[in-house]
Amino acid sequence: AGAAETKPAAAGLNIAIITTPSGVDDGSFNQDNYNGILAFVKNHPTAKATAIREPSGDVAAALKAAADVVAEYDVLVCTGFQFAGIGELAMENPDTKFILVDTYPTDAKGNTVELPNVYAMTFAEQESGFFAGVAAALETKTNKVAVVNGVAYPSNVNYQYGFETGVIYANKKLGTNVQIVELPSRAGTDVTGANVGGNYAGSFADEATGKVIGQQLFAQGVDIIFVAAGATGNGVFTAAKESNGRLKVIGCDVDQWDDGTVGSGNIILTSVLKVMSLNVERVLNQIQEGTFKGANMLLKADTDSTGFVKKAGRNQLAPSTIQKLDEAYALVQKAVIVPASNFGGFTPEQFKVN
Amino acid sequence: MLKRTSLIKRLFILCCGKGRHQLLRTSLFCIVLSLLAGIILLLLLGKNPWEAYRSILQGAGILAKPRYAGRKSQLTDFMSLLNYTTPMVFAALSVAVALKCGIFNICVSGIMVFSGFMATVLVGYSNLDPFVAKILVVLIGALSGALLGMLIGYLKHRFNMNEVVVAIMLNYIISYVVSFFIQTRFIDPITRQSVAVTQNARLTLFDYPVGNLKMEIALVFPLAIFAVFAIKFVLDRTRFGFELKAVGSNSKASNYAGIQVGRAVVFTMIISGALAGLAGVSYYLGSNASIQPRVLPSLGFDAIAVALLGNTSAIGSFFASLLVMIFDCGTTYMSSRMQVLREIAALITSILLLFSAIGIFFRNLADRFQQEAEEV
Amino acid sequence: MNTIIIEGLSFSLPLFIIAIGGIYSEGSGITNLALEGLLGFGAFFGGLSYAILSRTFGGDPTVLIYASLGFAMVGGALLALLHALMCIKFKANQVISGVVINMLSVALTAFLANQINASFFGQPSNKFLLEVFPKATIPLLSRIPILGAVFTDFYTFELIIVVVALFMAYVLYKTPTGMHIRACGDNPHALAAAGGNVQKVRFWSVIASGALSGLGGMCFAYSISTTFSPNIYMGFGYLAIAAYIFGSWKIGPTFLACILFGFARSGGYVLVQKLSLPSSYGDLVLTLPYIVTLVLLLFFSSTNKPPRALGEVYDQAKR
Amino acid sequence: MENLVEFRHITKRFPGIVANDDISLSVRKGEILAILGENGAGKSTLMSMLFGMYTPDEGEIFIRGKAEHITSPLVANELNIGMVHQHFMLVENQTITENIIMGIEPKKRKFGLFPIVDLQSSHEKVQQLSMHYHLEVNPRDTIEDVPVSTRQRVEILKMLYRNAEILIFDEPTAVLTPQEIESLLLIIKSLRDSGKTIILITHKLDEIKKIADRCAILCKGRLIDVLEVATTSVQHMSALMVGRDVSLTLDKVEHEKGAEVLKVENVSVVSQDHITLVDSVSFSVHEGEILAIAGVSGNGQVEIADAIAGLIPIKSGRILLQGNDITTASVRKRIEAGLSYIPEDRHAVGLILDFNLRENLCLKQYYRSPYSNERGILQHDAMNELGNTLIEAFDIRTSKGNDTLVRSMSGGNQQKAIIAREINLDSKLIMFVQPTRGLDVGAIEAIHTRINSLRSEGKAILLISLELDEVLQLADTILVMYNGKVQTIRKANELTKLQVGEYMMGVHVEKN
Ligand SMILES: Nc1ncnc2c1ncn2[C@@H]1O[C@H](COP(=O)(O)OP(=O)(O)OP(=O)(O)O)[C@@H](O)[C@H]1O
Ligand SMILES: Nc1ncnc2c1ncn2[C@@H]1O[C@H](COP(=O)(O)OP(=O)(O)OP(=O)(O)O)[C@@H](O)[C@H]1O
Ligand SMILES: [Mg+2]
Ligand SMILES: [Mg+2]
Q: What GO cellular component term, any one, is given (chain C) (predicted)?
């Protein structure tokens, strides 16, 4: 019997969000997605949202969690790369809509597929990284900046390459002379085995190592670090907090201002964004209106899906910096500037400013 | 008043007092107690405990859910429960066997990672015939586990090293070293885990079509059942089991009686290690298909408590595994239906294990009450 | 070199105070594998108290920072109370109780942190943000070559730990209480016959182990991430256990073991940096303290003597 | 005379047993009251209540005419009651002083601030005390390094340090040599003479005869009688205690000894700390011969037995059993070569307390036919049969027969179980170490008879005992050890008790 027959004619959408161990209240990635759902529910009071957490973080367990509850809901929002393998489940449950964040669905053999009931979104991290790079280059006083990442997976390499592109862009076009500091011992090896440089902690959950890297960079004169390293990033934040305001960081994915308070100050220069909440809400609206179409989308600045925080009181950028960032943002939107990315075909060093 | 207390006492004696199946009755009593604690917890959170427990059973495939997704049914949920229970049975047996010999094997997690990794690397990526591959996976799992177990047993026997410390150290070393190899050689960039093993090497037939259903069929579940009876037989009926238990209760007296204590310790750890290794392959190449770097499976630690809940007996370990895994497998569904944090289930499980850890106290208390009752 | 010492100490000392907790508990005869859970729960409690106090009182965080250390000790002691009850009153198997308490601690802190953040602070998060712990440098001493690093740029909690450690060592080795604790670990019946109360001594020793673990856990929370989050369960409790077993249940040698672990760790980081190994080798560096322990134990475990009555359930009637 | 202590209608129950049943007994000031009774008669229990380790279920204890609730040893201390326990209550890794002052430590302030235990003055005080009562100890020694007799002195000093007026001794002589016993009895006497009141639990009638004023006899938890020692015969006392007549001497038939069974050649044993425990010892035991090794405890006797049994390695020398060299053989090989061994510590070595009686009785044979088949599978029927046979033959008294948990059996019956198992092996050589320690007269009699009849059957018997009477009564040949060396080996009838005692103290040195 098809699942649709047994379902009651729901007054509103029954939505579930399935997340990995950190839960919808991680104050970060998952929460941003959840906020998108909440915003939708606010406008459609008959809709219902349920948060489900899978505690191990293992991909098989993540899929099982989704399979356990799939019959109960109209929409499953699956946040995180762990859910890539959702393809099979989606094919078997064509009446359930899936919103997949940060990865595209794969079938049983691991090949990426496009499905009519799955809207999968990934983001051009290199663009966000680019804004971080420009901001860092404009704001540094020591003329030394750095980026810290978790593991050299494509998304992290994108952030790193974008950041480096941003610094190079600023050096060439905005009159800065800033050096990117890399600890040779922290060079990353990407998934193809190529050495991509950068500063990699080797884990997304090792705060202690994060702090050590932050300190080592600080010792080398770095005063701004772009941190895209999950929980490992907390360690870098700590290093910054202990520097008496001499070391600042740029947050990533969501506005991390609240994580940066130290005494009456804050170590967050700005945060660069993946705008997930708006996109999740938009897709939910499409489902509600019946205009939903499955797709695998790479979201970029052109849809305002990447960006940086310039809201007053949530950043410490100089007005001139914000102005220059806005200019760069427009160029990125128009694809005049295309930052380097892991598989974009060129490295930051090969980046050409048109 | 007086009468009421004595009624409660009599009930308690009935549950934990002397007589047939005292251990079993005490365990059941602990289970009931912790379910009661869970009820209180759920009531405090304003949830309906009856619904919550029912949805756990539904999630685990013991009861029928109101509706099922495409190609799923209660049977598929139940088969999935068995699939997830399989590694726990092996792990709990591993702990139980070692405990019988007086050794505390806290290295199950590490051994699981090691054996899972060995099997993944040696067989998981090959194109061997499914039958051969699966047999090899089981053999490699048992063998690599046995090897580590032997190492622990040997270090304990020969160098008088505290097995708990050795195990803790080994857990971390294995976890980091395996993580190193996964990150540098076997990483899947999308899942950020080791590249999934081929279907040929998996010990679980995943999404196996049966009628219009898709099942998880744990091929090694029968092996787990066999292991339960084999271990029971070894402990109860064989010469080696006798020696193992003797060494566990009093190694000095065992030596005096001519039992080779070192040999018994090492062999016990070989068996315990092999079981942990089987837990590893049935976990990493069965219910899962890949390994998370730097993560020690919590199952290996839970198994300690599970073995205890099962009174370190083989049969007991099996049922305790099943019970704990019902909770584990049903949690997601419950948390989804009841809109509660899934930690509730983890809390109830912890409370259950706490109670079962003081089972001996309950038994003694019941004995005392009984004494009093008889004297009056 | 300086970094090795500075970083090494800021890791060794919290580890050391947790290990002293272990020595108290095990020295009195109660096996304590629960240190990991105790330190986590202590840090949770400290973090929670900080979150509450800073919201209620605001103002200068320094006082609150130090106060939170105290609350962390209370938190550790609270969970240790459970271990004490389990082992002493209910005569549970002490190893098992320890393992279960670790599990409980992880489940409970995650649950409570979520629940409390959501219901009281209206914040969906499982973390409590903390302030940076004050650091200090002693003017003259810090100029001494090499050794000066000991007095340079240290967290002030390191001083607190040193003072507490000295106090705990004094209590254990110089006072009647300490004599009784050690007697409990060796032959509880002797203490009972001399009029001591074995249950009470053991009870308070376990509580002390919880308080000290809580203190150490809170220091880790401050020094590593300036937050309380479930990431606190990183296995340092187990490392502390290794440290005191290595130190043969004596405070002095345990201190050396902790220093060794701390320096192996910070030295490892510096070494990787110096050798310019790629980051993927970080995993291998992290194995250093554990491998060092294993190898050294290989040589020293024959002289390693646990307290004679360790792990035995004390039963007055048993002879 | 005034009654210092009065037990009035004391009853104490333990699960399944009434350990003390309505006991009323008074102790007079300044007397030595002996308490006599079989194993498990309830002697230790009664005294433990006086000392506050247990509290009575019914009845009251009056001290100096006043009803007292002695809820803990601390209260007992305050009432000036002290006790030397059957099993020493000492902290092994602390010094003698620390053990003595435990619980009432004198304090001083370091830097006028921190209270610390004043060890210095305590050492001196203990030194003075020990000289005053002629109980020589070195206050700074650690307990684990000193011999049993010193430990006992520490226990006595512990009481004296607390100014105890009422001193309880629970089987104090069980672990001492004749000379030590002699001097302990003198000490007890002099304590009495200095005004202390003494309660002495013992199984040894001659000690009672020697120093006690009165003797209370317990049987199965009940007080049978209180006798004036001076006017009662030893036979009468033991008959009252056991409830029947006990013969206190054995008739031993002289007979020729047969072939050599055990030959020990120049065996040396060193400890882990490289201390020589057994120094080049040689002797042999023949069929039908009882060779007894006498010696003060800790002089290497037990190590010889352990070395012969293969429990500890030897440094040099050779051991031959029935002509076979077993120097390096495994424990099991030795057992199979014809060796039975009743070890000193029945709880820690002789038995597996958590196994049932059947399993303990099969402990040395479980692996071979008919108890196991060739595929390593245990044959429960055969094991049951063996258990039943031995329980019957050796009169092992239990609650559940074969299935009784050994832990729940009384000491005497546990010992019977070990002896049954070892004799059943039908070995040529049987080693007994301290076979009657802590057992009551009736049980001792049974074991002595058993040993004697084994001798008649032509077994070679090696007996190691601290009880000189036992040695003299049973042995054909006596070997005395001192400091790990053989002092002398002689025919038993060539030695007097006094001579043996002197050899044991290292006074005589054999001239070769
Ligand atoms: N703690 C206890 N728990 C249960 N039963 C006990 C306990 N202590 C003693 N008993 C019981 O009480 C009886 C008296 O024991 P007690 O130790 O007083 O005997 P005893 O006369 O000192 O014997 P022995 O000569 O062997 O020392 C024993 O038979 C035993 O069964
Ligand atoms: N804690 C206890 N619980 C139950 N029974 C006990 C306990 N302690 C002693 N007993 C019982 O007390 C009785 C006598 O014990 P006890 O140890 O005094 O024997 P014993 O002949 O004196 O041996 P030992 O040489 O060890 O002193 C036995 O029946 C024993 O089982
Ligand atoms: Mg007694
Ligand atoms: Mg006794």
A: plasma membrane
Residue type, B239: R
Judge whether C318 lies within some domain: no
Q: Which of D410, D440, D441, D466 to mutate to test the pocket of ligand 2 (most atoms within 8 A of CB)?
A: D410
Domains D3-242 and D249-338+428-512 are alike in CATH topology: yes
Q: Calculate mean pLDDT across residues D83-93.
A: 87
ipTM of the complex in this document:
0.83
DSSP string, C18-71: HHHHHHHHHHTT----THHHHHHHHHHHHHHHHHHHHHHT-S-HHHHHHHHHHH
Q: How many CB atoms lie within 10 A of CB D392?
A: 11
pLDDT means over runs of 10, chain C (319 residues): 85 96 96 94 95 83 90 96 93 85 89 84 79 86 83 90 96 94 93 88 97 96 87 87 88 93 85 76 80 83 82 69
Which amino acid, one-letter code, is at C82? L
B336·A94 Cβ contact <8 A: no
Mean pLDDT for chain D? 88
Alpha-carbon gap, residue C213 to C199, rounded angstroms: 21
**What pLDDT score does B261 carry?**
94
Decide if C1 is inside a domain.
yes
Rounded CA-CA distance D50/D27 in Å is: 12
Selected for mutation to probe chain C from D78, D81, D83, D91 (highest C CB count within 10 Å) is: D91
On chain C, the residues whose CB falls within 8 A of the CB of A237 are 225-226
pLDDT in tens, A247-290: 999 999 999 998 888 888 899 999 999 999 999 999 999 999 99
Q: Average pLDDT in the D264-275 region? A: 88
Assess whether the C-beta atom of D412 lies below 6 angstroms from ligand 1.
no
The answer to the question of residue C269 being in a domain is yes
User: Which of B321, B324, B356 lies closest to B88, judged by CA?
Assistant: B321
Other C-beta atoms lying within 10 Å of the C-beta of residue B147: 17
Residues facing A15 on adjacent strands: A49, A75
SS (H, E, C) B84-152: HHHHHHHHHHHHHHHHHCCCCCCCHHHHHHHHHHHHHHHHHCCCCCHHHHHHHHHHHHHHHHHHHHHHH
Q: Can you give the residue ranges of every domain in chain D?
A: 3-242, 249-338+428-512, 351-426
Which of C312, C313, C319 maximizes ligand 2 atoms within 8 Å of its Cβ, making it the mutation to test the pocket?
C319
Quickly name the fold that domain D3-242 has.
Answer: Rossmann fold (3.40.50)
- With b meaning 16 or more CB within 10 Å and e meaning fewer, what string describes D307-345? bbbbbbebeebebbbbeeebbebebbebbbbbbbbbbbe
Residue C108 maps to a domain: yes
Answer whether B123's CB lies under 8 Å from B132's CB: no
Q: What is the pLDDT of residues D330-348, one digit of tens each?
A: 999 999 999 999 998 888 8
pLDDT attached to residue D245:
61
Residue range of the domain that includes C125: 1-133+147-301
- Residue C249 maps to which CATH number? 1.10.3470
Q: Domain tally for chain C?
A: 1
**Burial state string for A85-103 with b = 16 or more CB within 10 A and e = fewer than 16:** bbbbbbbbbeebbbbbbbb
**Region of poorest pLDDT, from B106-120, B358-372, D331-345:** B358-372
Could you please report the per-residue DSSP string of A119-174? EEEEE-HHHHHHHHHHHHHHH-SSSEEEEEESS--HHHHHHHHHHHHHHHHHHHHS
CB contact under 8 A, C279 and A187: yes
B60-99 as b/e: b if 16+ CB within 10 A: bbbeebeebbbbbbeebbebbbbbbbbbbbbbbbbbbbbb
Q: Is any Cβ of chain D less than 8 angstroms from the Cβ of C122?
A: no
pLDDT at B207: 82
For the D249-338+428-512 domain, the top CATH level (class) is alpha beta
